[in-house]
Amino acid sequence: MKCAKFKMVQWRSGAAKIGATLAALLVLNACGRTQSVEVLEAPVVDMLPGDSVGADRTTIYLPLLKDKRVAVLTNQSGLIGTTHLVDSLLALNVDLVKVFAPEHGFRGDADAGEHVKDGKDLRTGLNVISLYGSNKKPGPDQLVDVDVILFDLQDVGARFYTYISTLHYVMEAAAENKKQVIILDRYNPNGFYVDGPVLDPAFSSFVGLHPIPIVHGMTIGEYAHMINGEGWLKGGVECQLAVITCANYRHDMEFAPPIPPSPNLPNAAAIWLYPSVCLFEGTIVSVGRGTDKPFQCIGYPRSPVGLYKFTPKSVPGAKDPPYLGKECTGMDLQEFGMIQARMDKQLELEWLIEMYSSAPDKAKFFNPFFDKLAGGTALREAIIAGKDEATIRASWQLGLEQFKTIRAKYLLYPDFTS
């Protein structure tokens, strides 16, 4: 089994050496015209993950908020140092009028797909408006008292991670209502590769709006420029966009967010496995929700594959997980995620192929959600037809190369080497 194969690699944690000084750019895009506005020299430092991200660079973006009514779209990952962005901005006398919240809510503790109600933040008294469920896009009535939307979310670089869909709808609403969006950029922990089938537009949904591969290798800021530049907003509108870049980011950096970006991605192993393992959410296979290893193990009751046992329980962030209270058999992928996932720099397909080929009832293995996650029918049809991993990978290479050409136009940071 693939999960038993490991190459040795020195695992690094804590400080990462930055070997060169990088220019940090504030890039404005107004009416489709991108221009360099200001270049700041970022010092060479021993950088702990989270330092020198867009939110930290208050001297650049606070002048853009002066005398503006500001809405913030963020969650628990939006920090300046160790203090929440909202608390920091209020202390800096920014005129915050409301908070928008993505999937999982403002505090990041709601289940995937759970309806999150609007309300008030108890600490600040600010109104919190959910942009998940029936209200994915801010309406004119929700923007009438807003001049600027400040966007700060920790993404994980996968097409089906819904924060980039929220980004799309916020940019679209802002463009339609003549508001500005300022993105406080953050590192992409899966920004070191690009892989997977490119989405067929016929399968566009909230878990995949755009014709991009499963792993896109872009930061939120870079992706926002792509949304604008490729004309993906409804009616061809363009958002007035500013991106506050990270000071010391490279796409090949090893990085784990200091705060879990959502309840079931608690650590680096889960985040690095997520692009591969999330595909199982469109099958009979549990991805470990309701255990201490979400997105780090796979299995289902009486699975013939693997020896690892786990029993999902009701826990915060997974109140009603698949196979609640039932023992599942499968694979423990945690060590693979910590040691191997970054080295392979590709989606891991062998687990999916093996789980399907060993399933007692293949007709029930996939559910309709799988094609939305995969971005079309081709991957499911190839697995059912018994095609091997190499053949499946070859089938999406042309689409990948076309996407990489488009992607290169919007990169704000030094890229990885293929």
Structure description:
- This protein is an alpha/beta fold and 418 residues long.
- It has 2 domains: 22-257, Rossmann fold; 264-386, Aspartate Aminotransferase, domain 1, CATH 3.90.1150.
- Helices cover 25% and strands 17% of the residues.
- The chain contains 13 helices and 16 strands.
- The strands form 4 sheets. A 9-stranded mixed beta sheet has the order 3-2-13-12-11-5-8-10-9, sandwiched between helices. A 3-stranded antiparallel beta sheet has the order 14-16-15. Strands 1-4 form a two-stranded antiparallel sheet.
- The model is unreliable at 1-50 and 108-115 (pLDDT under 50).
Number-wise, the strands total 16
Low-confidence stretches: 1-50, 108-115
Strand line-up of the largest beta sheet: 3-2-13-12-11-5-8-10-9
Largest sheet: 9 strands, mixed
CATH architecture descriptor of the largest domain: 3-Layer(aba) Sandwich
CATH homolog superfamily of the largest domain: Uncharacterised protein PF07075, DUF1343
Please tell me the overall pLDDT. 86
Number of H- or I-type helical stretches? 13
Strand content: 15-25%
Radius of gyration of CA atoms, rounded to a whole number: 21 Å
Summarize the helix and strand pattern as letters.
EEEEHEEEHEEEHEHEHEHEEEHHHHHHH
Give me the CATH fold name of the largest domain. Rossmann fold
Key traits:
single chain, 418 residues, alpha/beta, Rossmann fold, Aspartate Aminotransferase, domain 1, 2 domains, nine-stranded mixed beta sheet, globular, disordered N terminus
